[in-house]
Design goal:
The longest helix is centred in the last third of the chain and has 21 residues. Strands 1, 2, 3, 4, 5, 6, 7, 8, 9 and 10 form a ten-stranded mixed β-sheet that branches. The two termini are 17 Å apart. It is globular and about 70 Å long. It folds into two domains: 197 residues, D-Maltodextrin-Binding Protein, domain 2; 98 residues, Periplasmic binding protein-like II (D-Maltodextrin-Binding Protein, domain 2). α3 crosses α10. By secondary structure, the chain is α/β, with parallel strands linked by helices.
């Protein structure tokens, strides 16, 4: 069964399930259902381990939604398959407006390089809203010989340099593959289960290089626990004003990690709109913005999110395919 066909089947089943769950409600009945939403606890799945950037963001949003809704909003960590296991669980859940997942760019990249992806990243989900975007930060261990991008490339022309990311098929993995191509050097990817584990090895001197989200890694560079080599963006970032960008160093690569909120395909649009609007309010709260100084917290309409994910899948999934990356 093809991915496209599975996506159409999942979408049809989602619509049928929604009709059953809402009991065929229309007009005043549906309006009342939405007006009372949420009438019970809401689950947000994080497909990564606790303590990762995705987990921190999801919990900050969940805490505010609990206060706003006077209902429990609990975060469930379901790591595995580079972030795909948790998303797959939500894709299979009832599309009743009570199950959501926060995903990153690997959601649309990894399926493009898998022989048998667990879902269609577009068709099997209901887009809700963008949550945040943040550029990547290239770090070097203080115990390594690498003091700059120029030195890294000099060493990389005579030896294969190892670098860590949050996993195969992650935005940071594909970005480093593209950077190695632009720089004309060979690099060995060391996949980790999350950025926190890679950071521990960078600080401990067990890993020479890491590419991760600046939101997670900037404090290590700022405090001198690791060396900030470059930001993978067009412009320097306020949290690390002295760290150059790859673009200004002559490598035209700008790559932002992102986080978005999705529900299973067939989630009722009025509930999608309700959640999206309320999350948009949360993202603009001063105390929430203060918790994520390196992130661009922003919301979107479902249509804007859909177009964004389609574009990201085409660009970065295409780069991953062209590079010959593959996940069994």
């Amino acid at each position: 069964m093809s991915v496209a066909y599975r996506g159409r089947v999942a979408g049809l089943l989602g619509l049928l399930a929604t009709a059953t769950l809402l009991g065929g409600l229309t007009g005043k009945g549906l309006a009342q259902e939405v007006a009372n939403y949420p009438a019970r606890s809401v689950k947000i799945v994080v497909p990564y381990a606790a303590g990762a950037s995705t987990d921190t963001l999801a919990r900050a949003i969940a805490q505010k939604l609990e206060l706003k809704w006077s209902q429990t909003v609990y975060v469930e960590n379901l790591p595995g398959i580079g972030g795909l296991a948790g998303a797959a669980a939500v894709a299979r859940s009832q599309p009743d407006g009570y199950s959501f997942v926060v995903v990153t760019a690997s959601h649309v990249i990894s399926p493009a390089i898998m022989s048998r992806p667990p879902f269609d990243p577009i068709k099997d989900f209901a887009p809700v809203t963008i949550l945040a975007k943040t550029p990547g930060l290239l770090l070097a261990s203080n115990q390594s010989e690498i003091t700059s991008v120029a030195r890294m490339i000099e060493l990389g022309r005579t030896q294969e340099l190892s670098y860590g990311t949050s996993g195969v098929g992650s935005k940071h993995h594909v970005s480093m593959v593209e950077f190695a191509r632009l720089a004309g050097i060979k690099m060995q990817h060391i996949p980790y289960r999350g950025s926190a584990q890679a950071m521990n090895d960078i600080v401990g001197g067990h890993l020479p290089l890491q590419l991760g989200s600046i939101s997670f890694a900037y404090d290590s560079a700022r405090t001198g626990k690791a060396k900030g080599l470059a930001v993978v963006a067009e412009h320097r970032q306020a949290v690390l004003p002295d760290v150059p960008t790859l673009v200004e160093l002559g490598y035209p690569l700008s790559s932002a990690e992102w986080w978005v909120l999705l529900g299973p395909a067939g989630t009722p649009r009025p509930m999608v709109n309700k959640v999206g609007d309320d999350v948009a309010e949360v993202l603009q709260m001063p105390d929430v913005k203060a918790r994520f100084p390196a992130d661009d917290l922003q919301s979107s309409t479902p249509e804007e999110l859909l177009r964004f994910m389609q574009d990201e899948a085409a660009v970065w999934g295409g780069i991953a395919k062209k590079a010959g990356l593959h996940i069994d």
